[in-house]
Amino acid sequence: MKKISFLLLLATTFGCNNTADKKSTNGQQDSAASTTATSTETTEPVQEPIEAVKGSKSDIPENIKMKGTLQEVWKWKDKLGENLLITTLVEPYSDKRVNEFGETGNTSELFAFHYTKTGEVPYKQLWMMTDGVTSCPFDITCDFIKNSIKVTDLDNDGTAETTLQYKLACRSDVSPSNMKLIMHEGVDKYALRGLMWYGMPETDFEVIADNANLETLPGYKKGGDDFVKEMGRYSTEKDFANAPRPFLQYARKQWIYFIKE
Fold it and tell me: Who wins on pLDDT, 103 or 99?
């Protein structure tokens, strides 16, 4: 009888201990699950990459009025909402102006527009850029450089940068065109301005990203025989002084890539 009572006591003791262990284990599992759920909820969402696609005239709403002939349309989505980048060109036309030498000339213009919208609100103009050649009595060059329009997110902040390049000239010789690289992020603008490189037989192409800036080019003195050194280079990088570092690095590469006329 004493043996039976002793066995019952042991069974009861082990049963209680097993129950306690199961409760403790379950408690640990619940705590871990709770921690995981909390961690997931507070994790910052992954920023989707910005993908720009080439559009057409049909992507431009009727309320957007433009001057000139449509060149390109690009569209994408970012933190600003839905975006449209539009470029247009006004072909050379006689402006009937007379210059200091009594000559009449032609004018050509180019335009770029950035529009944004959120929800059902109509597109609003974020910025507009215009440039051109006016009253030129010689041959006019006024064109966006083919394939130079880029839409990027170099600083990974969810707002796209747009970069475009174009060339301008009024000339009757073989001198190089002026070239401009214009980058925007939102309403912030950055630019490089200089000359294209014209491949004359007596000159070698030696421009690289490290020596493209005339402001820091060793031995350069503006004017005179140093004009040859200006070909393929830009005057300054000051516009990029407060820009994120990747912007200037990218702009330098784009400049070099499209510099040969």
Answer: 103
Per-residue pLDDT tens for 150-190?
A: 999 999 999 999 999 999 999 998 899 999 999 999 999 99
pLDDT(192) > 90 = yes
* Close Cβ partners of 112 (under 8 Å, ≥ 6 residues apart): 85, 86, 87, 88, 128, 129, 130, 164, 182
Structure tokens at 15: 């049963």
**CA 33, chain centre distance (Å):** 42
Q: What pLDDT does 205 receive? A: 87
DSSP 129-182: EEEEEEEESSEEEEEEPTT--EEE-TT-SS--EEEEEEEEEEESSSPPPEEEEE
Q: What is the CB neighbour count within 10 angstroms for residue 195?
A: 23
Domain ranges of the chain: 1-43, 53-258
Joined tokens for residue 133: 């050649």
**Phi and psi, residue 73, nearest 5°:** -130, 130
- Cα separation of 131 and 213, whole Å? 23
d(Cα 106, Cα 155) in Å, to the nearest integer?
42
Residues contacting 61, CB < 8 A, separation 6+:
122, 123
- DSSP 8-state code for residue 234: B
User: What's the CA gap between 5 and 11, in Å, rounded?
Assistant: 10
pLDDT of the residue at 189: 98
Write down how long the chain is. 261
Measured CA to CA, the distance from residue 89 to residue 131 in angstroms comes to 10
Q: Which residue has the tokens 């933190």?
A: 79
For 4-28, write each residue's pLDDT tens digit.
443 333 344 434 444 344 333 344 3
* Dihedral of the alpha carbons of 228, 229, 230, 233, in degrees to the nearest 10: 130
**Helix/strand/coil for 251:** helix
pLDDT at position 202, please?
66
